[in-house]
Amino acid sequence: HNAAGFGVDVRHIAFDAMIADYLLNAIRPATTLQQTFERHLGTLQASAALLFPLRERMRTLLEQQSMTSLYDDMELPLSGVLYHMECEGFRVDDTVLLQMQSQFETRAGELASEIYTQAGETFNILSPKQLGTVLFEHLKLPPQRKTKSGYSTDADTLDRLAPLHPVVRLIQEYRFLTKLKSTFVDGLLAARAPADGRVRTRFQQCVTATGRISSTEPNLQNIPVRTALGREIRKAFVASEGNVLIGADYSQIELRILAHLSEDDGLIEAFRSGEDVHRHTASEVFGVPLDSVTAEMRSAAKAVNFGIVYGISDFGLARNTGLSRKEAAAFIERYFARYPGVRRFMDAAVAEGKALGYARTIFGRRRPLPELSSSNHNVRAFGERAAMNTPVQGAAADIIKRAMI
Questions:
Q1: 340-356 and 265-272 are packed helices; what angle lies between their axes, rounded to 10 degrees?
Q2: CA-based angle 315:318:323, to the nearest 5?
């Protein structure tokens, strides 16, 4: 980026120590060049000359761990693609953003006065401490759990309290609105480049343990889409003159990868039939014909399909679907009975993780699994989920990277 500012185009980058280190240490990538010297050469000094032995050492390690192709054919070429995307930036329509800013301000003001009326007092709605006092001491709602600083007022807590007092829904909406406004509307307006009004994010190639790319300052990968307000924000992203925007995505990529890796006949058939895969799953797990699958059945099946990919528990499924914990457990049992290949794959992934000490994708990307040898049950459970999740999520990341290149 800095060289480009002077009209210099840097080409033929032969080695990138940061990327190599990330592939070798996905859960604790080095944050400075100094760290890579310490880690791979055991030296505390840092000099340009050390880059040559560093490259030799890292090349050897990549070869030993069968990640040379991942490095040469995927990660290194991708850095060029991401660089061009960062330079290009995204055009945003500031009139849309400014209009939303005032719309959000008005709505937040209306919500606040409504909240004060219902609570019978004015207070800082965004202060967890003040909110806790109002909800649990003045309105006498049942506290859900304590934190170091007092009563918890997190999203889960508010969800549980919502049926008990109408003010809670208003507080939830107020929180959502102010977060959208500060993060997306104000954030995007502030991030526009003065010269051309475009927003340029930074793509982080060496951060996530599974190999996904992340985006910061501002994060353009989490522009909300599921709510009406979120969709409004998307309208601010526009094509430059003479162009149109095209959105493209893989359909159910993680489930397809799961079908491929588990070789489960039922799941493969669900994709081959061309049916909507969640409807198909619902019909099989609930044991009803396809045309009798209700919207609720489909959304339960969808939650399990995605949950399975991330290593689900009956507790997590119950929370996401409104099923009781017992119903959720029974549903997961039926799912595995219907797709035995998926269960075999999950068990094998955990066993392989324990044996090797890491999980890997079909492209050879590795995620170390130190959690599996922890004495803490929760940490071990997290490690087991990572063992099941990495081959699937990591491969999805790899495939989209290939497509980008």
A1: 120
A2: 145
